[in-house]
Design goal:
By secondary structure, this protein is α/β, with parallel strands linked by helices. The protein contains 7 helices and 10 strands. The protein has one domain: Rossmann fold (3-Layer(aba) Sandwich), CATH 3.40.50.
Length: 274
Amino acid sequence: MPLVELAPGTSDWHDVKHAALILWKASQISDVTALQNDLRGHYMNSASTVIDIYTGINQRRKALLVHNHETILIAFQGSADDEIYLNLWTDGKGANWWNLPYPVYESGNRVHSFYLDMWNGMKTAVFSALGDAIATMRNHNMVPKKVTIAGYSMGGGVSTLAFTDIIEHIRHIYGSQSSSPQDWASDSTLGSLIQHLTFASRGAGDQGYLTLLNELYERRDFVLRTIFHAGEVIVISCRTRLLISLELDLVRWVMGFMDTIKLRSGWLSMDWIK
């Protein structure tokens, strides 16, 4: 896939740094109240909110929604040390030990079974939290200016499966498919409204699934500003996969001190930033 270079001096670097910061802080601060207070101090905004999101099948929080002013970030977290093996559960399986694994498909394309279960387990909570954030904005005579979907490692894979559902949810509740469409969610603005960023993402689907996803990125209705995607999602990979704090901290350092960096889009293989 082609190399994507973010131009120096653009707001895009701020968005990437913001997503990396949230994912890094979420990996360090498990208590949602403490995390919210930390981010309120960072943003200097006492009204910033953080909502925990659970899957029902993982012991720990696997996502969170951060609402700050007119921006919303839905961040899907990576696996903890004792969850790494779950990344290998690509096939479905029955409850009994003798049940054989079986491939799982979405619209005829094979996807990661456990990642799909995780997303289905938290989908309702994500949509509810998103609706609450938008309602809060409306009460303050604001509308969303940016909705970012981001994920790290396992969370990157989950975010890949979540991305299209979140777009369609926004279109059906607020946009062109709604009975009361709102200008901020029209198809012509979705390209500047919604973005998808993954950091060291694990693969979530087969080539057919990812081809359809790339076609969605390339649609002019949805991606009017291509500096982020250029047709593909940006995957940022760092050197170590041993410590999440080191990886995300390194990403923040890179973003803070480099004006431009070339990132290779990819799904099943990673290109390392050294």
